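hey so i finally got around to running the thing on that chain from the lab meeting. sorry it took forever, my laptop kept dying and i had to restart like 3 times. anyway pasting the input first so we r on the same page abt which one it is
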Amino acid sequence: MRLTCREIYAFLDEFLDGHLDPMTRVAFGAHLVLCSKCRKYLATYRATIQAAGDAELTDDPKDVPAPEELIQAILSVRRADPAQVAE
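ok and heres what got predicted. didnt touch it at all, straight out
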């Protein structure tokens, strides 16, 4: 069994999740050995998944205090023209 680059892209999620059947997994690996473009694509795909996962682990915005400059800027606008803030 030989896989094309297009088939490699279609199987990426199953490959990374370990859900490929043994025959497809071997063909997938063989293709990666021969195709530098697919190896690079797989590397960027993994990096993207990692970055997305890391982003989910960041602090919850409600737990991060607002910068003091922002607070003061909002307060100064409210003091300058309270009617404009209500609009």
